[in-house]
Amino acid sequence: MSRSERLRFLYTYLGAQPNRDAVRTLAARLGRERGSWLYAVCVAGAALGVALGGEPLVGLVVVAAYVPALRLAFSPRAGRDLIALLVASARAQLAVGVLLVVVFFATR
After folding, report:
1. Which among 42, 37, 58, 44 has a CA at the least distance from the CA of 107?
2. pLDDT in tens, 5-60
3. For residues 20 and 11, what is the distance between their CA atoms, to the nearest angstrom?
4. Could you report the per-residue pLDDT of 54-93, keeping only the tens digit for each?
5. DSSP string spanning the chain?
6. CA 85, CA 35: separation in Å to the nearest integer?
7. In this structure, what are the phi and psi dihedrals at residue 18, rounded to the nearest 5 degrees?
8. What is the crossing angle of helices 32-52 and 56-73, to 10°?
9. Rounded-to-integer distance, Cα 2 and Cα 91, Å
10. How far from chain centre, in Å, is Cα 92?
11. CB 62 within 8 Å of CB 94
12. Which of 35, 9, 36, 15 is nearest to 24 (CA)?
């Protein structure tokens, strides 16, 4: 049974109604501006966590790696134009992760 058939069954026979609020992300619930600030706070938390964890130089690299993503987060773009933010965020996460692994094995 395909997904659409299962949903049709649920709606028709079980009386289930789709709950649109259940599928909205936290950023969608907060709105565009507050969602940008939430993203910035999460990046700051990651940088602070790494810096306080004993690697302050890596903490600075975290901030530098996330600059393109933060610029996109605070840009006037909306909707599908923000897919570039996901790409920039994924690249920053990959770069920081690789750097942390290298630093870990170099200092241990």
Report:
1. 58
2. 777 776 676 665 666 656 677 888 888 899 999 999 999 999 999 999 988 999 99
3. 14
4. 889 999 999 999 999 999 999 999 888 989 999 999 999 9
5. --HHHHHHHHHHHS-----GGGG--HHHHH-HHHHHHHHHHHHHHHHHHHHHTT-HHHHHHHHHHHHHHHHHHTSS--GGGGHHHHHHHHHHHHHHHHHHHHHHHHH-
6. 12
7. -65, 135
8. 170
9. 34
10. 11
11. no
12. 35
Per-residue tokens: 67 = 């600059």
Look at residues 23, 82, 72 and name the one whose alpha carbon lies nearest to residue 43.
Answer: 72
For residue 33, how many other CB atoms are within 10 A of its CB? Answer: 9
